[in-house]
Amino acid sequence: MSENPIPSKYAKTAKESGFLAHIAYDSVIFGFDGTTLKILISGYSNTKLFALPGGFVKENESLDDAVRRGLFDRTGLENIYLEQFHTFGSLERYIPATIEKIMLSNGHLKAGENHWLLERFISVGYYALINFNEVKPKPDELSDSCEWYPINELPPLMLDHHEMVQKALETLRGNINKKLVGANLLPEKFTMKQYQQVYEAILGENIRRTTFQRQILGLEILKRHEKQFLGKSHKAPFLYSFIK
Amino acid sequence: MSENPIPSKYAKTAKESGFLAHIAYDSVIFGFDGTTLKILISGYSNTKLFALPGGFVKENESLDDAVRRGLFDRTGLENIYLEQFHTFGSLERYIPATIEKIMLSNGHLKAGENHWLLERFISVGYYALINFNEVKPKPDELSDSCEWYPINELPPLMLDHHEMVQKALETLRGNINKKLVGANLLPEKFTMKQYQQVYEAILGENIRRTTFQRQILGLEILKRHEKQFLGKSHKAPFLYSFIK
DNA sequence: AATCTATTGTCTCAATTTGTGACAATATTA
DNA sequence: TAATATTGTCACAAATTGAGACAATAGATT
């Protein structure tokens, strides 16, 4: 979430901690498990609060690098596919009591104490596409869990994080034909059916098999490999990979 | 531009001035003069620098409202069509010497003095669509001009403002069929040819007249009115307006 | 008043893309 | 050997788009 990891329990101002005040990011990290589109959610067991993984920008680091750093911390992956989708700056999202609750429960704050994380934040939303099977998510300093949730079965999220997920999903849907979305959500080699399932999971609707296959092959972005034999009692599908 | 209007010459910190530190916005304000797509550019005559109109977010004001406030100050218009397109947070865009030059030349700063505007800013880019003929642009506190420039004849812009314009334009192009762009750039009543010219100006390419007319009419978003007689020696076109 | 010119509104037909179903070609099971 | 589920591909209909033709017409020219 926006108001997430604290580098030091004792830094009371952003400047002391080396971060830019008032600026956060939140990331909607998509993964595809073969059937369902999922996202990573941080949990705070003492508070029963859930949030998107997020963080802050160091004084001498770019916004993009800050997000990459946070994603690396959560997933261990570098070179993650990232897309910025919206920046959230309403007044309604400024609820310091929520952050305070988390920090108190984790011992990062004493009651009544001031802290820069309790100030107002504007948060930049990014979505990431990662290969579901390569990742063992790790919680950050403030949270105690970081787990996959199907996009249709999310827990109640703090602040405006649910709106963030919706906006990320809308953006992803709008980009599905522009940005080779499958290349980041699928393993190196995949069947046409798997690719179709990625589309269906993102769009939330069924796609006609023959039309999909014709269109995708028509783009000439796929290379065909050997067939995949899975022991199923039917014709084995070809495997594909993205060219280049 | 990002580092634009100063509420008081004497506030040395963001907090004293009532603004959120490190956060700015820049606006790409599009207008259509009947032929060309133009945007508003602020000029600083003493420095020969040019920039997008921008500003800062007050502590108790939403990001959107801050942008609306700035647009009202520049144009006198309320209820402007606004769309956020990207947030810029690279390290390269942090060049305090540029801001310092402007502030020194305008007497907003003494040499060697500290000022919160000289700190690093992350800027949220918005584009606006306004009716060109309704507006008499006004400069802000730091600039001494605010004028229309055709998008293909922009002066050299400071920092990453040229990149901002490109990104705004890309976003506008992507939204052209989703968001009823013409409704905000055209007068209440307009001809099909004018509408087509808006499309051509935004897309930067010629459009086939008959196909365009067929498609637009097929959307059933236009109401047809009386014909427009302009004294030209040919058939007079119908006027249209957007339904609702 | 008749003719000419530029532009508009609409239509037609070809070209392309998409929707829909059919069907043969398999891997495995029964 | 036959049955079953799925895949790859084709064929044809339906819809959309490209490209041009053409009549209508407001004013200018004669």
Automatic annotation (TrEMBL), chains A, B:
Q: Nudix hydrolase domain spans which residues? A: 20-173
Write down the SUPFAM superfamilies for this protein, in alphabetical order.
Nudix, Winged helix' DNA-binding domain
* InterPro entries noted in UniProt: NUDIX_hydrolase-like_dom_sf, NUDIX_hydrolase_dom, WH-like_DNA-bd_sf, WH_DNA-bd_sf, WHD_NrtR
Name of this protein: NUDIX domain-containing protein
Checking Pfam families in the record gives:
NUDIX, WHD_NrtR
